[in-house]
Amino acid sequence: MDRLQAMTAFVRVVETGSFTAAARRLHLGQPAVSKAIAQLEAQLGVQLLLRSSHGLTPTSAGQRYFERVARIVAEAEEADRAARDSTASLDGRLRVALPTTFGRIQIVPRLGPFLAAHPRLDVDIELDDRRVDLITEGIDIAIRIGPMNDSAVIAKRLAQGRRSLIATPHYLATAPLLDTPEDLPNHQAILYTRGGTLKPTFRRSDGTEMTIPLHARLHLSAAEGIRAATLAHLGLTIAADWMFQPELENGTVIRCLTDWHLTPVDLWALYPAGRLTSARARAFSDFVQHIVTMA
């Protein structure tokens, strides 16, 4: 048994807790698995497993070895699958992290075709606005909106989205005049921060630029809160159009100062650094890219 096969045997023993169960999963005889583990221990010069009447558990050295080797085995298996048939239906489990509002509006309602194309694939979706730790939380792919300054991940830009100044017609009917960016200090802004001032730059096609500070009494830490406050006519906000797409389409909210433009927002797919990106994660990234391109 070569080194990778021995590593695979060790991973399966730790996962199942016995030589017999691991041998069954590997379609090997139990003596072959026991011998592979013994050879690994001899090569490394440490004991990897504790044997007792209750089964097998890793030693502290064995646990450290398992945490690293399990990733190697998973990546080797993923590489094998990709080489055999990159167009085959995917299987296994995919763990995805999505921003709550973007996921709820743009992704979850459109998952049907993706799931139908891969009937043997299970998908776990974490809807959360916080910046998750992909390695610690076992996330295969995260979708993130905004600037990218995280060196601990592999990042792929999927698209750029329009950002707009957005408000309800009801708010605008009762608020002060809004003809140019210079009128914004007279308005109630709803900001996606925990305090401070946002200073967006508005640009017009003739090259004119204005950077206007927005002051807000209401700050919210989640996009769902921004949406709720805006739809309750509490003020205007700056947001990616993706976040208000249904309301923009039915007229519940409208874009303001449409002669002026804001810097677009980037949409990213993030993968854990130091690991081979799985075919499952790549397929989901392509799926999201298709959705936002068609939106």
Automatic annotation (TrEMBL):
Pfam families: HTH_1 (PF00126), LysR_substrate (PF03466). Keywords: DNA-binding, Transcription, Transcription regulation. It comes from the Bacteria. Residues 1-59 form the HTH lysR-type domain. One of its GO terms (biological process) is DNA-templated transcription. GO terms for molecular function: DNA-binding transcription factor activity; sequence-specific DNA binding. PANTHER family: HTH-TYPE TRANSCRIPTIONAL REGULATOR, IRON-REGULATED VIRULENCE REGULATORY PROTEIN IRGB. Belongs to the LysR transcriptional regulatory family. This is LysR family transcriptional regulator. It comes from Gluconacetobacter asukensis.
